Amino acid sequence: MYGFDGGKKIKGRKRHILVDSQGLILAVVVTEANAPERLLALACLMEDIEELSQLELIWVDGGYTGNNFARVVGQLCNARVEVIKRSDDFGGFQVLPRRWVVERTFSWLVNSRRLSLDYELLPEVSEAFIYTAMIRIMLRRLAA
Question: In this prediction, what percent of the chain has a pLDDT beyond 70?
């Protein structure tokens, strides 16, 4: 169940997450690395379509550009898609607005020892461990 991602030149899996503005996970899809990103984003949206139909705006990175993607997202959950792209004028690292929320969530998840490497054989098990790690993070916040 491991695919080869030609863009990143790696073999493995992709983790697609949908988070709210605070970085808490709404949906997770784990697939082979060679799966197309736009299709998996739509699969992530269809995880819990009734709850996600309340979304109004979805921020995505440059990998999810395209009018067809925005149109299908609008039909699925009546949300507007806003692509956050990196400026070509500026070289090197730059903090993109709202993009850091997803990256921060990934860094929270990597703190979980089981998610630091991909130990699982089935993608469903990886998804379950991601949800479990997020439950642990949310419980710690409530306890504080």
Answer: 90
